[in-house]
Structure formats: structure tokens, C-alpha cells
Design a protein that fits this description.
heterodimer; A: mainly alpha; MetI-like fold; 2 domains; globular
């Protein structure tokens, strides 16, 4: 019996092994190499990390990165909560259409969506053209190549990642608690604030973690809408490597970004069910 | 019609405004794709299909589209097989180490795209995989694996553990049980995983920018380069085509779900 149990287990491991080995060899090992390069190029030691800590542009870039990630997260939470609440708690018409439309951007290429924002927000873009042709402004407004443009497009790109966990959470909330509060005389707003809202916190925390972590490392949208003037860490890394071939500094920045991401996730573990948020999302 | 409170009305209005913010900006590519100018702009003196014609006749765009499709389908096939086997194995074991393996497999979701692409670049140089289709397929397969395993595992969560046990005690081998009991139960998750894997690969840009040079061109790479040069409205035509395909698939999928 013991022998058979052992072979069964080894058969299950045979199923696991190909994917696991591929991940270890071709994904984890290259990341380990990145870690090693940050200590060996151009010279062995902590030189890159000394540069990293003492450089003012790098500090600015980290501040910009965290600021954009934080504002994007807050924007997505507010907008996402309103939509999710409406879908599950109000007798809104066309609820099926609303649900489909809120998920539509999720399926559409991030590149295509960022391109649409460039067409809208550029100096000669659709918004500026329209405002100038009706005579509201005579000079084009600076709508992109600044933090405003990056934030608008980032919130647009990240919104589905906030809506999905909040919706999953609201779906499982029993409406009888709010009904009981109303029956006991609470106003609609009080019942929402004191009874419903606290129950939605797990979904809100999941959304916060997901959006914040994805925003920290995001590259495409900030690079396209920022036009080189809003350097988040990911873009800063590519500059160091593609323009100046500074692999040592670039990899040290990568390690710093990874550590920052890991720290955010570990700090969030106190408030968020990591399993539900990351491993078991539908 | 029940009476609606001010709170409800403001929430609903807000929700439709958010939907407008989500959907309307994506539609702007449609008029731009029909512009009669040779630069990105709204049409002024009439509509033109010249940018669609350019997309369908320019070998650069057609080849890139084919590469993206070939890479996406290969990634979907490989990642689905590897990811399904992985998830089924973990589901049977369900012990500490299987859990560790599951967390390890989803790391590509959490690692910033630029960081993992640096890793790919350095290792792919050592392996001689730079600027090759197989190099891109391998990288995209790793990025797609988390999505496959998550959706297959979600489907297996509903499978009663006593069913494969019954198959085993009736004399079926491990392989027979996996093939004829567990995999059919996981089918919805496997299909969803394959679709996810294709989309992950079809949209991926950062990795491709690092591990390809000139030989391998993908659709996202041409769009990226086009945006950098920011002249050619062909991108708007491509964006419109992709948007329409996405919306069509969503509508078809939602009808199938209802029927």
C-alpha cells in the first residue's frame, strides 16, 4: 500500500514537473541573473546601489512612480466601486449591457487603448481641436506628455482590475443585512455607510493591491502618454539600458522595483486575502 | 416602476458616466481610421478607406499579423497543455509543496514587465534565441502559464474529490483517471485558459521589444513603432479592426452563454 501511494505521488509530480521546470529554468533563473548582474557590472560590489541611493533623478523617479500608482489606485477604486455598486444594488436598466461594457476594455489591447488616448489628448488631438474650433481656447491645452495624461490613461487601463474583485465580493453579500438596518429605521445612506460598505472592504482591499502592484511596474501607458517627461521606474530602467548600456544600474533599479513590489504585497497580506486575490481569482 | 432615491439616482448616473469614460475614448479610433489625410486626424473633406487598403496590401503589416497569430496559437497550445497538467497534478496532491509550486507559477503576473524582459534578454542571448520565433513563443508561454493554471484550478474547485477516487478504486490507472475524469471536469477552465493564453501573447509588447530585432515583427511591435513615429493612420485602421473583432467575440460569447 505504501509503495503504491508513493508511486501515485510521483506520477502527480510528473504532471507538475514540465511547467514547473520551464518556469524555474527560463523565468526564475534569468531573474536570479538580473540580481547577480546588479552586483557584478561594471565592477563587483555595491557600487550600483550606492549610485541608486545617492542619485536625485532616481529618487524623483521613485516618487513619481509611487505617486502615479497611488492616484491611479484611488481613481480606479472610486470609479470601480460606483459601477459595481450600481450593478448589484440598484434596479438600473440595461444591467447586462453595463456589465459587458465595463469588462470590454479588459479584452482590448492596452496598446490600442493607449493609442486612442494619444489621438484624443495630443497637442493637435481631437479634444484640443474641438475646444479650439468652438472658440473655448485659442492655445492647445497640454493634455499629455505630463502626469495628467498618464493618469487619465492609467485609470482607464487599470479600471477593470479594480472592478472585477469588487464585483466578485459584492456578488456574495447577503442583502438581508441592509434590509434589516433599513427596517430598524436607518436611512438609505446610513445603511450603506455603516452596514453595506464595511462588508465590501475585502473586495476593495483586493482591488487596491492588484491595481497598485500592476501600476508600480507599468511601462506601456506611461511611456506612450508621458512622452519621456514622466519617467516612472520601468521607463527609467529601459533608458539606462537602451540609451546608456548601463546594465549594472538598470538591473539594480530592477531589483529595487522588485523589492518595492514584494514589500507592498507583504504589507498588504495583513489586510488582504492574498490567496483569493492572486491565486484563486476567477 | 419603484420610486428611486436620490442616492440610487446619483450612483446610477455616476456609473453610466464611468462607462462612457471607459468606452467612448476607444471609439475615437474609428473616425480617425477613415480620415482622408495621410496623418493622424479626423476626416475633413470626406471619408477614405486608403488606410485599410494599406493595412491589407502592405506586406509588412500582413507578415506581422501572421507572426502574431502563429506565436499566439503556439503559445495557447503549449501553455494550455503544460498548465493543465500542472494544475491537475497540484489538485491531486494539494499539499504544502504543490501550493509552493502554484505560487511560483503565478510570479509572472507580479513581476514588472520590464524587469522580466531584461532577464529574458540576457538569458536568450546565452541560448541564441534572440530575434527568433521560438524565443518569443517560449517567453510568451511563461507569461501565459499563470492565467492557464488559475483558470484550470478555478474549474477544478467544483470537482468532488470522491469522483476520481471512485474511478481509482474501480481499477482505473492514474492516467486513465486524469484523461477521462479530471480533464473533462476542467474543460471550461481549460478553454478559458487557452483563450487567455492567446490574448496574453497576441497583446504582449515589452518582452518582444527586448528579445527581437528585425527578423521577428509582431503586430503590437509595428503598432508601437508606428505610435513612436506618430504619422501613419494605418495604426488607427488596425486599432479599429482589433476593436471590432473584440466586440464581436464578446457579443457572440454573451449570446452563447445565454442560450
Amino acid at each position: 500500500m505504501a509503495v503504491r501511494a508513493l508511486t501515485d505521488r510521483s506520477r502527480y509530480w510528473l504532471l507538475i514537473l514540465p511547467a514547473l521546470a520551464a518556469m524555474l529554468i527560463f523565468y526564475i533563473w534569468p531573474l536570479v541573473q538580473i540580481f547577480a548582474i546588479s552586483f557584478t557590472e561594471p565592477t563587483t560590489g555595491f557600487g550600483n546601489y550606492v549610485d541608486l541611493v545617492s542619485s536625485r533623478p532616481i529618487r524623483t523617479s521613485f516618487v513619481i512612480t509611487f505617486r502615479i500608482a497611488a492616484i491611479t489606485t484611488i481613481g480606479c477604486l472610486v470609479l470601480g466601486y460606483i459601477v459595481a455598486y450600481t450593478i448589484y444594488n440598484t434596479s438600473v436598466r440595461f444591467v447586462g449591457l453595463m456589465m459587458a461594457l465595463v469588462l470590454l476594455p479588459f479584452w482590448l489591447s492596452v496598446l490600442v487603448r493607449s493609442f486612442a488616448w494619444i489621438v484624443l489628448l495630443g497637442r493637435r488631438g481631437v479634444v484640443n481641436d474641438a475646444l479650439m474650433s468652438i472658440g473655448l481656447i485659442d492655445q492647445p491645452l497640454p493634455l499629455m506628455h505630463n502626469e495628467f495624461g498618464v493618469l487619465v490613461a492609467m485609470i482607464h487601463v487599470m479600471l477593470p482590475f479594480a472592478v472585477l474583485p469588487i464585483m466578485a465580493n459584492m456578488k456574495g453579500i447577503d442583502p438581508s443585512y441592509v434590509a434589516a438596518a433599513r427596517g430598524l429605521g436607518a436611512s438609505e445612506f446610513t445603511a450603506f455607510r455603516q452596514v453595506y460598505f464595511p462588508q465590501t472592504m475585502p473586495g476593495v482591499f483586493s482591488a487596491t493591491l492588484l491595481v497598485f502592484v500592476l501600476s508600480l511596474g507599468f511601462y506601456i501607458t506611461p511611456a506612450l502618454l508621458g512622452g519621456g517627461r514622466v519617467l516612472m521606474i520601468s521607463e527609467y530602467i529601459t533608458y539606462q539600458i537602451q540609451e546608456f548600456l548601463k546594465w549594472g544600474l538598470g538591473t539594480a533599479l530592477s531589483v529595487a522595483l522588485l523589492v518595492a513590489t514584494a514589500a507592498v504585497i507583504l504589507a498588504a497580506a495583513r489586510f488582504v486575502n492574498l490567496r483569493k486575490t492572486l491565486l484563486e481569482r476567477g | 416602476m419603484p420610486h428611486k432615491s436620490l442616492f440610487q439616482i446619483s450612483m446610477q448616473t455616476g456609473a453610466w458616466l464611468v462607462i462612457a469614460f471607459l468606452v467612448l475614448p476607444m471609439l475615437v479610433v474609428i473616425p480617425v481610421s477613415l480620415t482622408d489625410h495621410s496623418y493622424i486626424s479626423l476626416p475633413t473633406d470626406g471619408l477614405s478607406l486608403q488606410h485599410y487598403e494599406n493595412y491589407f496590401t502592405n506586406p509588412k503589416w500582413i507578415e506581422a499579423t501572421w507572426s502574431s497569430l502563429v506565436i499566439g496559437l503556439s503559445v495557447a497550445a503549449i501553455a494550455t497543455v503544460l498548465g493543465t497538467a500542472f494544475s491537475v497534478g497540484c489538485w491531486f496532491l494539494s499539499d504544502f509543496w504543490a501550493n509552493v509550486a502554484r505560487w511560483l507559477l503565478i510570479t509572472p503576473i507580479l513581476v514588472p514587465p520590464v524587469v522580466q524582459s531584461l532577464g529574458f534578454y540576457r538569458f536568450w542571448v546565452q541560448l541564441g534565441l534572440i530575434d527568433s520565433m521560438s524565443g518569443v513563443i517560449l517567453a510568451h508561454t511563461l507569461l501565459a502559464l499563470p492565467y492557464v493554471t488559475i483558470s484550470v484550478f478555478a474549474a477544478l474547485a467544483n470537482l468532488d474529490r470522491r469522483i476520481p477516487q471512485a474511478a481509482r478504486s474501480l481499477g482505473a490507472s492514474v492516467w486513465t483517471t486524469v484523461i477521462s475524469v479530471v480533464v473533462p471536469a476542467a474543460k471550461p477552465g481549460i478553454i478559458a485558459g487557452a483563450i487567455f493564453a492567446f490574448i496574453v501573447s497576441f497583446d504582449e509588447i515589452v518582452g518582444v521589444l527586448f528579445i527581437t530585432v528585425r527578423r521577428v515583427q509582431t503586430l503590437p511591435k509595428l503598432i508601437w513603432q508606428g505610435i513612436q513615429e506618430s504619422i501613419d493612420p494605418t495604426i488607427a485602421a488596425v486599432a479599429t479592426i482589433l476593436t471590432i473583432i473584440t466586440i464581436t467575440i464578446m457579443i457572440v460569447a454573451s449570446f452563447r452563454r445565454e442560450s
